[in-house]
Known about the structure:
The protein is of the alpha/beta class. The protein is built from 10 helices and 7 strands. The chain has a single domain (6-216), classed as 3-Layer(aba) Sandwich (Rossmann fold). Helices cover 39% and strands 21% of the residues. A 7-stranded mixed sheet has the order 4-3-2-1-5-6-7, with helices on both faces. It starts with 5 loop residues before the first strand and ends in a 12-residue tail after the last strand. The mean pLDDT is 97. Bound molecules: zinc ion. Zinc ion is lined by residues 137, 142, 144, 149-151, 179.
Amino acid sequence: MANRPKLVVFDMDGTLINGRLIEVISRKYNLSEKVIEIQSDPSLPGYKKTEMIASLLKGIKASEIIKAIGSIPIMLNADKIVTWFKKNGYVTGIITDSYTIAAEVIANKLKIDFIAANELKIEDGVLTGEIKMPLGWEKINCSCTISICKRYQLNYYSKKYGVSIEDTIAIGDTRGDICMIKQAGLGIAFMPKDQDIVKQSKNIIRTPDLNEIMNYM
Ligand SMILES: [Zn+2]
């Protein structure tokens, strides 16, 4: 059955890269306090937080986002594990609640096949503060309510590439990754950042080294 198509999807911040883009940007533009305030407001659904944070970025040059993502180190052995997956017949993807212009940089660096992310609106090279979010949870009744339902995206891409769900792998580090981790044939919490993902994951990697995935293969 070696020829059966397979799929592996990675979260970006804290998983493929050792840092978080929004933290780097908000530090640079003195937005940290506002961003943290939005992120820690329990009354806001996830997608609303994404919308509000994007509006704070209004006026920043798109090239600054690309510079910021380039300054964050790639996670240890990310290139090695992606190369291994590709050699072994996996389609590779990034599913992130970050931004397409940033995820493209990482996908190009690591030669990853596709990305799914939020799209910042750009006019004359400058962020307008608006954002286009894929959502998806409203279509499948997922409780995540974030800007991009990763379970919805996992289903979408597995169908697109003709991969059955048991032949999928999903790897992520935060609450927003839970719905895809639980849906995938193999779901792995990598360096988990909150208790929810720890409680809901059977497989947990606690070393900042993506080569640890090999222990599950
Ligand atoms: Zn979801």
